[in-house]
Amino acid sequence: MNTLIQYLDLRDMMLAGFSMGTGEVTRYLGTYGSGRVARAVLMGAIPPFLLKTPDNADGVDASVFDGIKAAVVADRPAYFKDFLDNFYNVDVLRPARISDHAWQSSFNVAVAASAYAAHACVDTWLTDFRADLPKIDVPVLLVHGDADRILPYPATAARLPALIKDLTVVTVEGGPHNIAWTHPEIVNPALLDFLAE
Question: What's the pLDDT at 52?
């Protein structure tokens, strides 16, 4: 990403990431600084550190991720079905906020992805961003659903106010992981207001 930003000579930009993309935004700012970045957005955030370790008691047990990788190997389409059901919290939000057609569109994209990538990406979820977060010195908007089953709020978003200096938090009540789809009436104004500041 830094190579692309330099090649395009982007300046005074807003970096926004969703889910795994929030790790990219965090690592970029932690590594390259904010010389070209005016603001940042983390939506459905993966930082600070998802894996439970002796020094990260609020993380998620390693067995959860081992189970995910085993499910990908055993039956990838079935895994994606379960993943997307929790991505959108379909048991609660269908059909009012997620239609069967929109869900199917996401499934079509997911199941067409590389089998190797579907398995290998799980390990990237365990990246430790704790050292990057205090280096962020631009205003940051955090938008996260408090019913996120993919990146649970207590293990992720709830911990970020103590780690990012200038943070605006928008918690979407009842929001799943993909709040941009299910709750655009909250997400879109938050993004536009933050951009306009």
Answer: 96
In the annotation, is 177 catalytic? yes
Whether 148 is catalytic is yes
User: Which of these is catalytic: 132, 144, 177, 183?
Assistant: 177
| From 132, 144, 148, 183, the catalytic residue | 148
* Other CB atoms within 10 A of residue 35 CB: 7
- Of these residues, 19, 132, 144, 183, which one is catalytic? 19
Burial class, 55, CB count within 10 angstroms (exposed 0-12 / middle 13-18 / buried 19+): exposed
Give the three-class secondary structure for 169. Answer: strand
Q: What is the pLDDT of residues 22-49, one digit of tens each?
A: 999 999 999 999 999 999 999 999 999 9
Known catalytic residue at 99:
no
